[in-house]
Amino acid sequence: MPEARRVVSIQDSTFRDPCLDPGILASDPLSISQITLTQFRNYEHARLVCDAAPVVITGANGGGKTNLLEALSLLVPGRGLRRSSLGDFQNRASDKPWAVAIELRTDTGPLLIGTGRDCAASCNDEERRLIHIDGKPARGQTILAEHIALAWITPDMDRLLAEGSAARRKFLDRLAFSFDPAHGGRVRAYEKAMRERLHLLREGRADPLWLDALENEMARRAVAIAAARRHMISRLSKAIAESGPVFPRADIDVRGTAEDLLEHQPALLVEDALRAAFARARREDAASGTCATGAHRSDLRVRHRAKNCPADLCSTGEQKALLIAVMLAYVRLLSEHRRMKPLFLLDDIAAHLDDFRRAALFDEILSLGAQAWLTGTDQAPFSRLAPFAQMLQVENGAIFG
Ligand SMILES: Nc1ncnc2c1ncn2[C@@H]1O[C@H](COP(=O)(O)OP(=O)(O)OP(=O)(O)O)[C@@H](O)[C@H]1O
Ligand SMILES: [Mg+2]
Predict the structure, then answer these.
(1) Whose CA is nearest to atom 27 of ligand 1?
(2) Cβ 151 vs Cβ 330: under 8 Å
(3) By the number of CB atoms within 10 A of the CB, which of 108, 295, 355, 382 ranks highest?
(4) pLDDT averages per 10-residue partition of the chain, 401 residues
(5) Contact yes or no for 99/118 (Cβ under 8 A)
(6) Is 312 within the bounds of a domain?
(7) Best mutation site among 37, 42, 375 for ligand 1, i.e. most ligand atoms within 8 A of its Cβ?
(8) How far is residue 19 from each of residues 15, 27, 39, 54, 130, measured CA to CA in Å?
């Protein structure tokens, strides 16, 4: 068990704890040392200095707990843990552009990541977010994935295992992306080609050669996407098999046209099969306005092994426990695979977990050694973690240590 650490956080202050031992921190692979939020959601200006221990944030509904985790989730490419539009981050009471500045301790020294609204972009172009790494502008978001690994569990994911396949597929793609940063580009390229193909088909006067080229691009990308997903599933299954007994064992699998074919056939043959399937489906796709087959139809299947039951038939708490089991395995896998241990964000995590599972989760978090950020309305459920954590309160966009 790690030793207890003192809370050293204070809102809007440059305070640093003189007792903080830099020697201890140097051995922590990846953790946040400082965050400054400016006009971000309900935060006008807030600053937080923290050590590498887990951070527990409590406070009444609407205080800004999820907003704070959302700011941290912008450390990796994408639209954050709520998948928001960038315009939503702007504090509604201010015209000054929002910004998030985060200082990280990494094994190669401090790293400063800044992100925010691009003031140079026109008002209509609010989807651009600026990124600075150590003060230098970055060309795109993908570079963030090279520096930082991050995992999160949010209440929105409570229904992930029970609802439609799109959210599960995106979830699996996000996991794959943190091991293989090219995965995001493949998915975007596939979707772009698919949209173009549908547009041509709907117009009804498409040049067959042009369609061939788009279907070729889709087939190529779909096979690469399916292979990355299968690889992720195989790694994650191994990590789950090595997990402790407290959380239910999840059997995971990915099913889809390309994924299924790749089980028995080499990639080139699967590409051919997909190309042929796309060509055959032209008339049907033109009529339906959707693409009947492809990488955008695949699904992540999860089963509760002990109950021999699909996850969607499990109880809410059982589904949450399955999801936590998967995410704990994923965080362990990231720690082993990457040089740095990931940051782990757990929003409103105590909900639906019984005392036993909650205690087991906290023990796992401490043994993982990854800096975890946990939120909840009350402190009581976190009492087991409190001696080892930085306990903060959030109220009306202000953070108190
Ligand atoms: N762009 C914005 N500008 C100003 N306030 C915002 C903006 N976006 C969201 N808010 C407000 O921020 C407040 C805090 O939201 P947040 O989701 O962080 O609360 P929370 O502490 O997680 O609450 P809960 O316990 O209910 O989950 C909410 O009242 C919300 O309306
Ligand atoms: Mg919240």
Answers:
(1) 61
(2) yes
(3) 295
(4) 34 31 44 97 97 96 98 93 93 95 91 88 63 93 86 94 95 92 94 97 90 98 98 96 92 98 98 98 95 97 96 94 95 82 93 89 92 96 95 96 86
(5) no
(6) no
(7) 42
(8) 12, 17, 31, 18, 35
Residue ranges around ligand 1 (CB below 6 Å): 41-42, 59, 61-67, 88, 90-92, 348, 377
Q: Domain tally for the chain?
A: 2
Q: For residue 366, how far is its CA from the centre of ligand 1 (angstroms)?
A: 28
- The alpha carbon of 49 and the centre of ligand 1 are apart by a number of angstroms equal to 22
CATH code of 344's domain: 3.40.50.300
Q: Which range of residues forms the domain containing residue 91?
A: 22-149+338-400
CA of 183 to the centre of ligand 2 (A): 30
pLDDT mean across residues, the chain:
89
CATH of the domain at 289: 1.20.1050.90
Q: Which ligand is nearest to the CA of 71?
A: 1
- Summarised one tens digit per residue, pLDDT across range 66-124 is 999 999 999 998 899 999 999 999 999 999 999 999 999 988 889 999 999 887 765 55
Q: Domain check: are 280 and 370 in the same one?
A: no
Query: Where does residue 364 rank: exposed (0-12), middle (13-18), buried (19+ CB within 10 A)?
Result: buried
